[in-house]
Amino acid sequence: MARISALGLDVGRKRIGVAGCDGTGLIATGLTTIEYKSFVQVVDQLKDLIQQRQVQVLVVGLPYSMDGSLGFQAKQVQKFAKRLTAALQLPVEYMDERLTSFQAEQLLQAENISPSRNKALIDRKAAALILQQWLDQRRSQKMQDSTMTTPNSALM
Asked: How far apart are CA 123 and CA 142, in angstroms?
């Protein structure tokens, strides 16, 4: 299986949760949270991570509305991601991020950590959930593709 290095991003108005994956593309882990001060500062911090981890793709959580439509916040995230892709020269893929922050809060509560005092940790965990979804989807797609390309001995 081809190695992949991706960064998962949970883009918010104040912070950006960042997650990375292991070289096998199996497990996503929260890496850091970037406080959003300016676009240039975000790009600089991401560039460092991208170089360290030899990142090939950015996976950005897209906050669809519960009815599946793209609301104001989702369009803002898309604009931001387009600017990032131009600045970092990397492709961007989107993942539905509905409920990932809620799931991240639930995980913290299970660890007896206060979500209200750990917003940055929630953003990191949400980014890891977004990236994990993408990795799992990619892996299941590859498995489907490989079963479809296997020659059927009955046809030979």
From this structure: 29
Please give the model's pTM, rounded to 2 decimal places. Answer: 0.84
Contacts of 105 (CB under 8 A, 6+ apart): 115, 122
Alpha helix ranges (H) inside 63-150? 72-88, 100-110, 119-149
CA dist list (Å): 73 to 65, 69, 70, 78, 118: 9, 11, 8, 9, 22
Burial of 82 (0-12, 13-18, 19+ CB in 10 A): exposed
pLDDT tens for each residue of 48-66: 999 999 999 999 999 888 8
pLDDT in tens, 106-139: 887 888 877 777 788 888 989 999 999 999 998 8
**49, 16 Cβ separation under 8 angstroms:** no
Q: Quote the mean pLDDT of the chain.
A: 87
Alpha carbon 53 to chain centroid distance?
Answer: 15
